[in-house]
Design a protein that fits this description.
about 180 residues, mainly alpha, 6 helices, about 0% strand, transmembrane transporter activity, TRAP_DctQ, transport, transmembrane, cell inner membrane
Length: about 180
């Protein structure tokens, strides 16, 4: 039996250098899920075996999980694994797919820019007091880490990166549409 080559569309080939960087960094950061499992196991052990619960594990595990969830959005877009209505997308020509992608990228860019602005305003209020003094928002628990402020900053950064991704993908789709190789 002869090996059939995999078409380039089926491979997880990054479309640009930013996507390649996101994929590499995301693979490294995914190891934090293992760390979260270990600290959660530690918490269960301390709480139920030694009757000495921790004050930091739950908030730390939630922060790490939330952060990785946010990063997962740009990873999904970089690997082209985001949600798509394939019933329509798979039934149209390559040219129509490119046109649909262009519309998707314009709408996505608009959305991500608005969300970046909203996240920026959230960062402002979580990093500075109303009178302008630097002070990170904390959780208010006994442990009281600045995780809420850090997560809001991460969300802002991720939406900025997503906006750049949309611009790069949009330019790539327009360039491919103009080349007319897959009409």
């Amino acid at each position: 039996m002869k090996d059939v080559p995999t078409p380039p569309e089926a491979e997880d080939v990054p479309k640009n250098k930013l996507d390649a960087c996101i994929i590499k960094v995301s693979h490294v950061l995914s190891l934090l899920f293992i760390f979260t499992v270990f600290i959660s196991f530690y918490e269960v052990l301390m709480r139920y075996v030694f009757d000495a619960p921790t004050t930091w594990v739950h908030e730390t595990a939630s922060f790490i999980g939330g952060s990785l969830f946010v990063i997962g959005g740009i990873y999904a877009f970089a690997t082209d694994k985001h949600v798509r209505v394939v019933l329509i997308y798979d039934a149209v020509s390559n040219k129509t797919r490119r046109l649909l992608n262009i519309v998707h990228h314009i709408v996505g860019l608009t959305f991500s820019l608005m969300m970046a602005w909203a996240a920026y305003t959230m960062v402002q209020t979580s990093w500075f007091t109303p009178w302008g003094e630097f002070r990170l928002e904390t959780s208010g628990s006994y442990f009281n880490p600045p995780y809420p402020a850090l997560l809001k900053a991460l969300i802002f950064v991720i939406f900025c990166i997503l906006s750049v991704q949309f611009v790069l993908h949009l330019f790539q789709e327009i360039k491919a549409l103009r080349s007319r190789h897959d009409v």
